[in-house]
Design a protein that fits this description.
about 270 residues, alpha+beta, two-stranded antiparallel ribbon, 11 helices, 6 strands, globular
């Protein structure tokens, strides 16, 4: 149980959880705007739209900043554990570079924070739409509402050169339209998960034995995914007739999956 708790704390108190919760709030904000549009229907005013845009801007900045927090804190922790320019520190740095170079979602979201802080928060736009869904006979079946947060490329490319590289500008200009931020953010979060998984051993060098124990415990559960639990026997009364209790702890199957991925990577590296 100790091994499970230690790995659980390392995962769920890690910096990626901050980014994950930030994205949940961003998605929730867009969903709530769509619900409000349904409620007010034709009563949506310019004031409504401007207020909603400000709330989306705040949520977008929070998520974009979470990428910087994740990177800076992770690199600082690697430096504290292994030393600056150590092999471990350099390996972690390469993981961040890999995601930045390979995935547009991570790359653009990472730079979005610079644009919002040093140029304008108006680089995040909110597009609202409503349309009727009709049958082939012209009968209105339902009303469809959508709230989409977009990256306003015009604002981005107007940013001072020291805050936005020529390569990013070229990438934005080559796009056909202002991109939807939600899929970009989801891709960025996937990058954070990959970095955290691949860098787990660097940032948690003392958990190798715990990961191995969890993998062994996973084998004992076999194909059972849900309903995993550990019970312990507690003596309530030592005098005859003795009374016992068996409190149990429900185990999260995601912790086992994560542990197997991390331990498997370590074994093959």
């Amino acid at each position: 149980m100790t091994a499970y708790n230690r790995v659980d704390r390392a995962i769920n108190r890690g910096l990626e959880i901050y980014a994950q919760e930030s994205l949940v709030q961003f998605e929730s904000r867009l969903a709530s705007i769509e619900n409000l549009m349904k409620e007010v229907y034709l009563g949506v005013t310019r004031a409504n739209a401007e207020y909603w845009q400000r709330s989306v801007i705040c949520s977008a900045l929070t998520f974009a900043a979470s990428l910087h927090i994740h990177q800076e804190r992770s690199m600082a922790q690697a430096k504290r554990l292994h030393g600056a320019e150590s092999d471990e520190w350099l390996r972690l740095k390469r993981l961040f570079n890999r995601e930045y170079d390979s995935y547009a979602g991570y790359r653009l979201t990472y730079r979005l924070r610079n644009v919002m802080i040093h140029h304008s928060v108006e680089c995040v736009g909110l597009h609202l739409s409503a349309q009727e869904e009709r049958s082939s006979g012209g009968i209105v079946l339902a009303d469809r509402y959508s709230a989409t947060a977009r990256l306003v490329r015009e604002q981005c490319v107007a940013t001072d050169k020291k805050y936005l590289s020529a390569a990013i500008r070229k990438e934005l200009v080559a796009m056909d339209d202002d991109p939807d931020l939600l899929p970009l953010f989801r891709d960025a979060l996937a990058s954070i998960h990959r970095i955290s998984r691949d860098g787990f051993g660097i940032l948690n060098p003392d958990l190798d034995a715990d990961l191995a124990r969890l993998c062994d415990l996973d084998l004992l559960f076999g194909d059972r995914i849900e309903g995993r639990a550990l019970a312990r026997m507690v003596l309530l009364d030592a005098t005859p007739p003795r009374r016992l209790s068996m409190p149990h702890t429900v185990l999260n199957p995601e912790i086992f999956l994560y542990a197997k991925e991390v331990y498997g990577l370590k074994q093959t590296s």
